[in-house]
């Protein structure tokens, strides 16, 4: 810890965007939710290659679309297309991302759970489900998912640490939140969001 203006003590809060992996023809992205004092969200999505409705669903999710019609495209892909297991799991993640964008956190979590059942080693399913729990202020429930995502590995681990920092902060664990925001910066120095969150902290030696 470093010197701060308020005397000895641990980090204290004064008051948290997407990821991807290319595996077997698809890019899986995560969602990071900014909560607490900063009520904004950054989405994640899954890019499925190979044409068809699943790829259209993927493209819309990756490009940040919010129109409900794209969620319907994802559903149609799941209902009518033969998809490799990992692409099917990715399409559930994508549909869940659209639900997150309209703050339908319970329904989104169900899609991420289905993705995790289909592909238990898909880290992005856990990051996104953790984000859905954060959206519901179920911070303690989000932590096992975020820990699992970090253990499995995701293409943008900064987002997993960022989400976990939000969960820690929601549980009044400012010290753990501080170090996870710092870890997010370490993992992605160009990403401004964790730096912005750290401006709300005062840190000093103890």
Features:
two-stranded antiparallel sheet, 3-stranded antiparallel sheet, 206 residues, 56% helix, 9 helices, mainly alpha
Q: How would you describe what is shown here?
A:
It contains 9 helices and 7 strands. The chain has helices at about 50-60, 70-80, 85-100, 105-120, 125-135, 140-150, 155-170, 175-185, 195-200; strands at about 10-15, 20-25, 25-30, 30-35, 40, 45-50, 200. The chain is about 55% helix and about 10% strand. Mean pLDDT is about 80; it is low at about 1-10, about 15-30 and about 35-45. The chain has about 210 residues and is mainly alpha-helical. Helix 3 runs antiparallel to helix 4 (about 105-120) and helix 5 runs antiparallel to helix 6 (about 140-150). A hairpin with a 2-residue loop joins strand 2 and strand 3 (about 25-30).
Give the topology, please:
Blueprint: E1 12-13, E2 21-23, E3 26-28, E4 32-34, E5 40-42, E6 46-48, H1 52-62, H2 68-80, H3 85-101, H4 105-118, H5 123-135, H6 139-152, H7 157-170, H8 174-187, H9 193-198, E7 201-202
Antiparallel strand pairs: 1-7, 2-3, 3-6, 4-5
Helix pairs in contact: 1-2, 1-3, 2-3, 3-4, 3-5, 4-5, 5-6, 5-7, 6-7, 7-8
């Amino acid at each position: 810890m470093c010197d701060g203006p308020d005397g000895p003590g641990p980090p204290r809060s004064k008051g948290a965007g997407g990821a991807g992996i290319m595996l077997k023809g698809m890019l899986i992205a995560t969602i990071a939710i900014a909560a607490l004092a900063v009520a904004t969200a950054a989405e994640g999505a899954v890019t499925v290659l190979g044409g068809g409705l699943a790829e259209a669903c993927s493209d819309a999710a990756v490009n940040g679309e919010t129109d409900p019609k794209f969620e319907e495209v994802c559903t149609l892909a799941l209902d009518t297309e033969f998809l490799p297991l990992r692409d099917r799991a990715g399409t559930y993640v994508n549909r869940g991302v659209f639900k997150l964008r309209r703050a339908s956190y319970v329904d989104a979590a169900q899609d991420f759970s289905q993705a995790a059942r289909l592909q238990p080693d898909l880290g992005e399913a856990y990051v996104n489900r953790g984000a859905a729990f954060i959206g519901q202020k179920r911070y303690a429930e989000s932590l096992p998912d975020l820990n699992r995502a970090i253990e499995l590995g995701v293409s943008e681990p900064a987002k997993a640490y960022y989400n976990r920092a939000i969960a820690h902060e929601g549980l009044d664990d400012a010290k753990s939140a501080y170090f996870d925001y710092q870890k997010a910066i370490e993992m992605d120095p160009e990403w401004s969001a964790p730096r912005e969150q750290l401006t709300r902290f005062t840190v000093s030696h103890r």
